[in-house]
Amino acid sequence: MVQKYQSPVRVYKHPFELIMAAYERRFPTCPLIPMFVDSDTVNEFRSEDGAIHVIERRCKLDIDAPRLLKKIAGVDYVYFIQKNSLNSRERTLHIEAHNETFSNRVIINELCCYSVHPENEDWTCFEQSASLDIKSFFGFESTVEKIAMKQYTSNIKKGKEIIEYYLRQLEEEGITFVPRWTPPAAAPSLETSLSCKKPAASLTVVVPDPTLKEGLSGEPLSTPSGAAEPTAGTPDDKLDADYIKRYLGDLTPLQESCLIRLRQWLQETHKGKIPKDEHILRFLRARDFNIDKARETMCQSLTWRKQHQVDYILDTWHPPQVLQDYYAGGWHHHDKDGRPLYVLRLGQMDTKGLVRALGEEALLRYVLSINEEGLRRCEENTKVFGRPISSWTCLVDLEGLNMRHLWRPGVKALLRIIEVVEANYPETLGRLLILRAPRVFPVLWTLVSPFIDDNTRRKFLIYAGNDYQGPGGLLDYIDKEIIPDFLSGECMCEVPEGGLVPKSLYRTAEELENEDLKLWTETIYQSASVFKGAPHEILIQIVDASSVITWDFDVCKGDIVFNIYHSKRSPQPPKKDSLGAHSITSPGGNNVQLIDRVWQLGRDYSMVESPLICKEGESVQGSHVTRWPGFYILQWKFHSTPACAATNLPRVDDVLASLQVSSHKCKVMYYTEVIGSEDFRGSMTSLESSHSGFSQLSAATTSSSQSHSSSMISRWRFC
């Protein structure tokens, strides 16, 4: 397996020429790098005008490896070839290095670059990348890989220290300025000066916050993208090392590399909104910086966020008054570490009443809005306290908890909420303080704890009775001045006190279902229910042949079959299915059938694309180039395979079964658009509409070629 490393951009606040003077002092040997024993020049070239200087060295390294391994390998030293190409005119230094020793068994390649900062010509940028591929090594491949990565990361940490050491040495010798290169025997012309000042065009340093720019210098470096998100879709975007330390925390070189590589993968493949760096880092931490696992869970989460429009929940969704009055939770200052503090008086909350009055979907959506608000508060506190804050503290007061809280539907709703939050908000809980746990708490804990991640469980601190007031209690984590009054503190807490929800506010399952459907319509998408025997169909009239019908839909619930039909005559006006056979009231306009039961396939209408089976949770985008004018019908039809049989996601068997209102019902969100052939850009498998802004992960693309050469369905599965 090839190990790869990619560094962030390291910025030296010194001119390029002074950095080069410091760099050259590393040769022929460097006392700050004990393993660097010596180096010999094997080849050198200098252009007539002195602008280009290429030097090739053979470097001798004493690797810190077990003596037995060195004896088996038959070597005491390892040799590398390093080629440095200095272009004084463009003010760049490119470094290429590869191993000479054991090159038939181990392949090591390193690329480094020093260049002028694109926004400040008196600063210098440095970045490096490397790869390690161990083919075979006497049965010690794993050991050699660990040794190589340990040595490499150790040298990376020392890299900046070494340059700064030699900069101080130059300063002690009175050298604080090195003139730029100029053509020999001629004064530099204006054109030459401008050429010398030209920044390296390939480097873009992204500084996602204005306060960081002010910390680096008194003048702007680049246009800020804001704390909200870095610039999307530009593979050359780089992360600055100072930005990582300021806003993301102290990461090891390998952790920095994982972050940069996953971020770059998203920039290259994800056409929608790029997650914030803090959010990417959370997924990496939750998977112990395993890029493949983090990428998989992040793709699932991005699909989920898109389906449920979570990015806009704080702006478009407002909690019902029942939640505002009876949900006993709210934000309350911050803990001693600067983390936002959320207080939940669970013992005072009528979970059964809230579920009966609001339904599980509204409760889940409220919890999602709390998590989104928590992310926003973490960003604010990062700026306020001047250090990275990526999680919050939750204080749960269980006084009043009794068997009423173990109501089975309420526990199931809680388990579902935990499942969703664990999957989509990893590493956001910094600490959970559970206070005044009663005797019934172990029962609830036994039910809930199996569904909580091990890393999260380790953050739980549980206090029975008034133990939280003693040593190791609340005062260790929260300042005395902000301990809530209901915990014998001095601070007035504005969290609602909860209480019983009046039964007059309870609603039927049908009423709750109708409201849940409305939550999906606050978007450019249309929503539809698909029932067994009652497909949902939409009509598109095409006047000009070779028009392009495009679609984007998400399968929110159940499995469906997607079909496209053509008819020369218009169907009768849409009739809404009464759904009497299903014993479910159909919300207005959410299920429409166009194809008359007396129509015959092949006589009255024809199929123009092969059926496409779409599983629950999939996002599908595609296009069809029409061959004839007339009427096209897009149909979403119920597929009989159970959704749960097709998913690999862990499920709570007895919980999720209860979440289905009907086992014969599916939900889809869709958007369609007709584009003239002259306005359709890109290939059939790369839909680009100026009116569509859908998320697409092209790396996870599968396409199905159809019988007609003029049409193709493109399909992206987010998994």
From TrEMBL:
One GO term (biological process): innate immune response
Residues covered by the PRELI/MSF1 domain: 3-175
Occurrences of domain CRAL-TRIO (ranges): 319-495
CDD domains: SEC14
Primary location class: cytoplasm
Keywords: Cytoplasm, Golgi apparatus, Immunity, Innate immunity, Phosphoprotein, Signal transduction inhibitor
A GO MF label: RIG-I binding
Cellular localisation: Cytoplasm; Golgi apparatus
Every GOLD domain range: 521-674
Pfam families registered for this protein in UniProt: CRAL_TRIO (PF00650), CRAL_TRIO_N (PF03765), PRELI (PF04707)
Disordered: region residues: 214-237
GO cellular component: cytosol; Golgi apparatus; nucleoplasm
Entry-linked SMART domains: CRAL_TRIO_N, SEC14
PANTHER family documented for this protein: SEC14 RELATED PROTEIN (PTHR23324), SEC14-LIKE PROTEIN 1 (PTHR23324:SF51)
Assembly notes: Interacts with RIGI (via tandem CARD domain); the interaction is direct. Interacts (via GOLD domain) with SLC18A3; the interaction is direct. Interacts with SLC5A7 (via GOLD domain); the interaction is direct.
Primary role: May play a role in innate immunity by inhibiting the antiviral RIG-I signaling pathway. In this pathway, functions as a negative regulator of RIGI, the cytoplasmic sensor of viral nucleic acids. Prevents the interaction of RIGI with MAVS/IPS1, an important step in signal propagation. May also regulate the SLC18A3 and SLC5A7 cholinergic transporters.
Protein name, as recorded: SEC14-like protein 1
Native species: Bos taurus
